[in-house]
């Protein structure tokens, strides 16, 4: 049990570290608080109360920010874009909103654009007016099942009452790779692979002569040394450019807005057809709002997105991780000038080839590598992805106060279509393996082995075709009225539904066409009351429906209740805390029902078949007639039992919140504590509920059950300080979240208490405790037996026998720490604005601590014939036994060494400097005489600039995929 104590000790140490972090942040915030206080009076005279009085989007409507009760965060994107150029709609949102890390409180949210479920990539940042994050259950209750894990509301820009205005923004910049993986060259690889062979008692694979000739580099075609990260294959940088035009205006009868955009991005590859790799997209978004009568308004929106992606065949980045530098003598090119001139067959090959590269080379190949990613890029043609998206929605708003004061009605309908198809140009080609000889001191190719044949292709063909469709409709009655000047009542009764379907002409990674489209329908009701904006009460809920459940269980109620108290309006509080401008306390409780975690339809029904959906395979039976064998057939097996009581998964949540403005509105703090139970997650019950005979060779009778439960708890916060010193104004935002999870109930039975997932974090990483490397045979012989396959030798990793049974197997795996796949134990973000005269400096950062990762990709787990990275230079040998940090080399897959364990684990703690931008607003006096341009600003910015971490090099490196990029941009925006 020693390991269990150490694991608990490790958890305690982590908690202590987090407490120290909290204390450090507390000191920092106190200092910032004091700085803000010193400048409070000056700020008060220059800063309006718009932040307190503004209206923001919430579920199915808008509400004054002052009256928001839930865990709701808002970003004014239109204002932010004046100092923060960005492209992606959710760009760096974690630097502005506590609790958002790409997920909302650790769960995947519903994304709505103008109230319609759509993809985040369907809108660009330059088209967005604002983004609202609904985090708590009470704020998303009206969205029913679909929104039960949080919601992101993206609202686009619209026209306003003003003369015609045209704004044009143009950007161009460079994409510069941050870092490439580091691999051994060919001679080094061959030398160390020979060492691996000796370690395994095998004959060396490479001769000393081959290694020597390779190291000389005099004939790279016979003794290749591939470096795919060299200038021969990759450019120093790529480029990205875009231009956007916005046209807007209107009067009291009609308002209009149009956004036109074009983006072009090229690639850093320059081999073959890949030099033409590029992405080109065109966007148009337009909307019109019309007052048809005094009581009736109408609106319409239309969006078209046309995107073409051209790319070469072959996967170059996969080749960088898979093609060894010598790869059994493979060279991508065969030099024509090295061919034996006296051999007419070789000259005939050259004359008849369709693929003479640069007039100097044939394509290289091997019997076991006849085609490869490089030759594909050079000779086989290209692929063009054609993406077309069309979004359309209409709406109407009716003021029904003529029937009864405060009553209104609104409805929205949308149709979205996205199609993707590929145009391909595929050319067959031949490759050649050269056979070398040294004649009269010259190395020449005396013969070629040919693989494949050259062909012709003059027509493009249509490849994969995909199709997405989304339709939605919303209708709602709204009531809002104030009685006796103090009693404010508002309410909503709505019906909402949408359907999304995917179809394909082939079986794709998405699983082929949807047999059953995704549907969400619910009826929602919300009732709210406040007295003098001091005491608040809100009750919201939805009746949800799911076709995934049995007929009698398809409907459920999702209620929520929220209370609020603006304590700053109380006389006793004002007398004691005059520096507090506004202080509101809130609390909510909700019980939301959802089917998002029910992964398929008809799971409540039994399943039988020769090959069932649950994986059961029927046996074969044969007839016997008088002792002779006759015909037969396959038996029918049970693949799943029925459960007519299968029901919704429940999100049961309690939350308390605080929202305050201090020191003449110079400092704002928002914080939420949440405790969220997710109950009724599905399992088969084979470990704890049903006896073993329910799972036998004659089939599975196990049904799906609502059994597993999870717990999520945390605190999110956002702190914003706005101050001014002379002509220098600044604002600082600091947001974050402390987050913890626990599996409170699991269908599991283990031999040892430390193996149970119940009581552990949902994102626990399980693995072995490594105790270093075996130093000699005695060390292996006296240690517990490690059952991973293969023969153990000195230099292999040894693991702790946690349960003391003398065998190392899965029962010795322990909880090593949280991987933070949804949210880390602590995540945070920073945003800083400094303004002086016409200059504005803006910076964004984000980070997280407390997570655990494993170095378990092929770059680190080097075995067999895989490519050797530079990490193996610190390998174990008899000479380096006491200092080695890498296991011995082996030609096998090394299943013993390549297990998730403390040997390969690392802390994922990091801070990212995501963006820095400098903006200069040209003096307006320059345009006094201009009838065209009213004002203009220029800016430069850099993205993805820096990572601070103990594992910085690894975290900035991609393995087997395109590199991470820094982006340096120059932009200009003109207002006409």
Automatic annotation (TrEMBL):
**InterPro entries (UniProt xref):** Plug_dom_sf, TonB-dep_OMP_SusC/RagA, TonB-dep_OMP_SusC/RagA_CS
Q: What name is this protein filed under?
A: SusC/RagA family TonB-linked outer membrane protein
**Organism of origin:** Sphingobacterium griseoflavum
């Amino acid at each position: 049990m020693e390991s269990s104590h150490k694991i608990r000790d490790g958890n305690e140490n982590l908690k202590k570290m987090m407490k120290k972090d909290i204390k450090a942040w507390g000191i920092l915030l106190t200092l910032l608080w004091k700085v803000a206080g010193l400048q409070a009076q000056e700020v008060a005279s220059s800063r309006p109360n718009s932040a307190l009085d503004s209206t923001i989007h919430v579920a199915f409507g808008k509400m004054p920010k002052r009256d928001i009760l839930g865990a709701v965060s808002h970003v004014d994107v239109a204002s932010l874009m004046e100092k923060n150029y960005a492209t992606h709609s959710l760009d760096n949102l974690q630097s502005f909103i506590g609790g958002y890390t790409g997920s909302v409180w650790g769960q995947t949210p519903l994304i709505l654009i103008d109230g319609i479920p759509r993809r985040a990539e369907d809108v660009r940042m330059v088209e967005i007016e604002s983004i609202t994050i609904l985090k708590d259950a009470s704020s998303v209750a009206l969205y029913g099942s679909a929104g039960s894990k949080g919601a992101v509301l993206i609202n686009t820009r619209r026209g306003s009452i003003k003369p015609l205005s045209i704004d044009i923004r143009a950007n161009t910049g460079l994409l510069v790779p941050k870092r490439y993986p580091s691999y051994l060259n060919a001679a080094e690889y061959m030398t160390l692979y020979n060492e691996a062979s000796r370690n395994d008692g095998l004959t060396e694979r490479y001769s000393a002569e081959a290694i020597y000739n390779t190291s000389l580099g005099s004939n790279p075609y016979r003794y290749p040394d591939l470096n795919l990260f060299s200038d021969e294959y990759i450019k120093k940088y790529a480029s990205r450019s875009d231009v956007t035009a916005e046209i807007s205006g209107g009067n009291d009868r009609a308002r209009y807005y149009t956004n036109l955009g074009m983006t072009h991005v090229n690639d850093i590859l320059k081999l073959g057809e890949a030099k033409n790799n590029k992405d080109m997209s065109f966007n148009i978004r337009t909307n019109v709002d019309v007052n048809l009568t005094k009581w009736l308004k109408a609106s319409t929106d239309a969006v078209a997105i046309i995107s073409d992606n051209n790319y070469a065949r072959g996967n170059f980045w996969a080749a960088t991780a898979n093609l060894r530098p010598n790869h059994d003598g493979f060279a991508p090119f065969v030099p024509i000038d090295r061919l034996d001139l006296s051999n007419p067959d070789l000259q005939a090959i050259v004359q008849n080839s369709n693929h003479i590269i640069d007039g100097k080379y044939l394509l290289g190949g091997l019997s076991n590598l006849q085609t490869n990613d490089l030759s594909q890029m050079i000779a086989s043609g290209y692929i063009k992805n054609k993406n077309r998206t069309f979004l359309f929605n209409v709406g109407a708003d009716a003021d029904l106060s003529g029937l009864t004061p405060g009553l209104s009605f609104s409805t929205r309908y949308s149709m979205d279509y996205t199609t993707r198809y590929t145009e391909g140009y595929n050319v067959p080609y031949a490759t050649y393996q050269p056979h070398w000889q040294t004649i009269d001191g010259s190395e020449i190719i005396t013969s070629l082995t040919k693989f494949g044949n050259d062909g012709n292709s003059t027509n493009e063909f249509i490849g994969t075709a995909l199709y997405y469709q989304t339709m939605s409709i919303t209708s709602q009655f709204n009531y809002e009225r104030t009685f006796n000047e103090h009693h404010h009542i508002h309410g909503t009764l709505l019906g909402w539904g949408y359907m999304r379907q995917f179809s394909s002409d082939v079986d794709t990674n998405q699983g082929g066409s949807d047999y059953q489209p995704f549907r969400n329908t619910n009826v929602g009701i919300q009732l709210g009351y406040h007295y003098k904006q001091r005491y608040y009460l809100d009750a919201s809920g939805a009746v949800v429906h799911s076709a995934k459940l049995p007929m009698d269980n398809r409907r459920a109620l999702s209620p929520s209740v929220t209370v609020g108290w603006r304590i700053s309006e109380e006389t006793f509080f004002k007398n004691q805390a005059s520096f507090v401008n506004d202080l509101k306390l809130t609390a909510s409780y909700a019980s939301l029902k959802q089917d998002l975690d029910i992964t398929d339809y008809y799971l409540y029904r039994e399943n039988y078949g020769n090959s069932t959906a649950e994986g059961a395979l029927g046996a074969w039976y044969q007839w016997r007639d008088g002792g002779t064998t006759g015909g037969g057939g396959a038996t029918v097996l049970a693949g799943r039992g029925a459960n007519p009581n299968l029901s919704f998964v429940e999100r049961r949540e309690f939350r308390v919140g605080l929202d305050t403005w201090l020191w003449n509105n110079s400092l704002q703090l928002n914080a939420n504590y949440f405790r969220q139970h997710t109950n009724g997650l599905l399992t088969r019950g084979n470990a704890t509920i049903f006896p073993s005979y329910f799972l036998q060779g004659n089939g599975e009778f196990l049904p799906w059950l609502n059994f597993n439960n999870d717990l999520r708890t945390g605190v999110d916060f956002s702190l914003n300080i706005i101050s001014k010193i002379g002509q220098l104004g600044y604002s600082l935002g600091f947001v974050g979240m402390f987050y913890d999870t626990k599996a409170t109930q699991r269908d599991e039975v283990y031999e040892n208490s430390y193996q149970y997932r119940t009581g552990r974090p949902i994102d626990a990483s399980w693995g072995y405790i490594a105790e270093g490397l075996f130093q000699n045979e005695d060390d292996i012989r006296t240690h517990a037996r490690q059952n991973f396959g293969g023969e153990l030798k000195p230099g292999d990793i040894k693991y702790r026998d946690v349960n003391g049974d003398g065998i190392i197997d899965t029962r010795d795996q322990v909880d090593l720490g949280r991987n933070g796949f949804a949210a880390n134990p602590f995540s945070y973000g920073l945003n800083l604005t400094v303004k002086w005269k016409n200059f504005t400096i803006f910076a964004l950062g984000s980070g997280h601590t407390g997570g655990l990762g494993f170095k378990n990709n092929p770059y680190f787990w080097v075995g067999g014939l895989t490519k050797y990275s530079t990490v193996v230079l610190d390998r174990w040998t008899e000479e380096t036994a006491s200092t080695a940090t890498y296991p011995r080399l082996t030609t096998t897959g090394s299943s013993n060494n390549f297990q998730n364990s403390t040997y390969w684990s690392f802390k994922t703690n990091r801070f990212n400097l995501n963006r820095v931008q400098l903006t200069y607003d040209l003096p307006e006096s320059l345009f006094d005489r201009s009838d065209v341009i009213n004002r203009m600003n220029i800016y430069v910015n850099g993205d993805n600039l820096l990572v601070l971490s103990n594992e910085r090099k690894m975290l900035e490196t991609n393995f087997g995929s395109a590199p991470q990029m820094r982006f340096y941009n120059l932009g200009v925006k003109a207002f006409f």
